[in-house]
C-alpha cells in the first residue's frame, strides 16, 4: 500500500521540483542582472563603501593606516588601501641574516616616537637597525667641520638608520595586529570622480537610502581590475608621480637638480657607530651605519660621474669611496685654520672594504604641490613634496604628515564634521605646508651653497661650520630642529 502511494506522489514531486528550479534560475538570473545594473550605475554592494581610501601602501601610506588604527576616535573607520605592490601581502617577510637593502632611511627621534605610539617600533627592534648618537660633517677644503654628540646636546640619540623594507614590514605587522576594518585592494587607481549629489534611484523605484546617503558626498574610485569603490576622503600617498594629485588637478612647482645619487650598502671590518657626511665639489657623500659592520652610502654627484661610478668595478668603486671620505679632494680639517678651537675632535671614517649590494642610481629633484587639499582629497608624503636627500629628511616629513592628518581627522570626528570637508582638510594643510616649505628651503640652500667652488665662498662655508662647532646654543637648536623636536629653525 505504501509503495503505491509513493509511486503516485513521485511524479508530482518531480513536477514541483522542476517548477521550483525554473523559479530559482529566474530569480538568480534577475539577481545577476540586478548586480550588473548596480555595477554599471555605480551602486555595488555596501562592501565597496569606505570612510577613507589611502592610495599608496608604501611607508607613508601604511604609517597613516597604523596611526588611524591606533587613535581612539579613528580606529572605527572603514579604510581601503589601494596599491598593486605584492609586498602588502607578505607580512613579516624580512629574513634573518640576509644582506641589507641599499634603500634606507635615517629616521629622527620624532619619527621613532611616532612608531612607538602606533605600536610599530617593537618590530623594528626585532630586525637590523642602527641607532647613532654621533655625527660628523665636514667639507673637502679642510677649513671647516662640525661634530654632533647626542649627550653634548642633552639627547639620548640623534637618529636611527633603518632599511626601507624593514620600516614597511614593521608597519604591515603592526596593522595586522590591530582590530581595524581595512581592505587592501591589490590594484591601481585609474580614474576618480567626485559625487556631489546622491545617485539616481534604482529602476524599480526603490532607493538604497543608506547607500545613497553615504555616497552622495564622496569620491568614486575606479581601479585597474575593473572594480569601483567609494570613499568620503581620498588620501594620496602614492609618491612623487602621484596619480591622485594628477586626477585632482593639483599643480606642482619645483625643478630638477643637475645631480644624481648613487646608493649602495658597503661593509667594514668593524661596526660603524657614527653618521658621516662630507661635502665634495660635486655634492655630498654620506656614510650611514645600519648595523652588523654594514653602512649605507648616499653619494650625490653629476649624472656623468654617477653613471661612471655605478658601472665601474667593485675594487675601483671601493677605492673611490675611501678617497671621497678620507684625503681625496682636499686635506683633513686641522685646528687653528680659522682660529683656535677649545676642543678639536675630528675623526677619520671607518675604511670600506667591500660593496655588499647592488649600486642604484636615481635623479634628484625638488617638487612641491601648490595645495595639499581639495574637496575630499588630501596629499601626504612625496605626493605633496620631494626634497634633496642630503639631510635624509624626506620620509620623516611624510611621517609628520601622517601624524598631523590623523589628528585633524580625529578632531573632525569629535566636532561631527564630514572628514572629506575641504575646510577640515585645510587645517592639515595650514599646519604642514609651512613646515615642509621651511625644510625644503633649508635643504635647497645647502645644495646651492655647495654647488659653488670658489675661494671666498669656501671660506664663508667653513666659517659657518666652525661657528656651529664652537657655539653650543646654536648647535643645540640645529639638533632640535633636525631631530623633529623643534618645528622651526629659530630660537624659541
Protein architecture, described:
- Strand 13 and strand 14 form a beta hairpin.
- The protein starts with a helix and ends in a 10-residue tail after the last helix.
- It has 13 helices and 20 strands.
- By secondary structure, the protein is an alpha+beta fold.
- The model is unreliable at 1-11, 22-46 and 198-214 (pLDDT under 50).
- It has helices spanning 2-40, 59-70, 109-118, 121-125, 164-176, 209-215, 243-247, 303-311, 314-325, 394-415, 422-449, 455-470, 472-482, and strands at 49-55, 79-82, 104-107, 129-132, 134-139, 145-149, 159-163, 182-185, 189-195, 218-223, 228-236, 252-267, 275-280, 283-291, 294-301, 354-355, 360-369, 373-374, 377-379, 385-386.
- Strands 5, 6, 12, 13, 14, 15, 16, 17 and 20 form a nine-stranded mixed beta sheet that branches. Strands 1, 2, 8, 9, 10, 11, 18 and 19 form an eight-stranded mixed beta sheet that branches.
